[in-house]
Amino acid sequence: MPVGKRIYLKRNLPDPKVIEGFKHIPASNTADCMERNCAMHPRVKLMSKPDSEMVGPAFTIHTRAGDNLAIYAALRYCHPGDVLVIDDEGDNTRSLIGEVMMSYLRDQKKIAGIVIDGPIRDIDNLQNWKLPIYARSTTPGGPYKDGPGEVNIPISCGNVSVNPGDVILGDADGVICIPRKDAAGVLPKAQAFHKKDEEKQIAFSKGDVDLRWVDKSLKDKGFDIIDDIYRP
């Protein structure tokens, strides 16, 4: 089996009920329940205008820099509800996908979204789509179609490790990856955190909050509170 030219058709998938449970929880709330180390780099930005969060199992793709043959393989083998997660080996010079391929993924494959650590093109139209599209940048420069590439193997996207079948959650803030084996345990924590966060926001808005802990923390950490102006 040639390393670099492998397409795996099967994945271990999370419980659909777990995926459904994350649909109404902000990515930030979930990330805070995971030691805040699961968020993709901010260079991976939301490029479209979805009306709901993106959540689904990762369908991973590793491409040679600037080549999209493996992404064409994904057009053949991905499933409805998948989130395509694409590692472009750090390249930022050639778009990997545009409106033509995206139309097929949206209308025929019914994917939940796409995350590309690399450029896309046709942003003039894609920016208005409801399909969640996350990418690094845009460029009119097109890709090669020669390979190599691999499908449904562990990859790195936005400096985060992603395995096939991991739960990918994205909103306006960005994208996080929830390891499949951890997702069922993270969900109730994220739900509780989200409820508490909503209550906290209401309390802060009303000014009904005790911030004396800040004074104690500043003192304990050695901050100086100086009742004067700064003088060079």
TrEMBL record:
Keywords: Methyltransferase, Transferase. It holds the Pfam family RraA-like. It is an enzyme of class 4 (lyase). Its EC number is 4.1.1.112, 4.1.3.17. GO terms for molecular function: methyltransferase activity. Its cofactor is a divalent metal cation. Coiled coil: none annotated. This is Putative 4-hydroxy-4-methyl-2-oxoglutarate aldolase. It comes from Lactobacillus intestinalis DSM 6629.
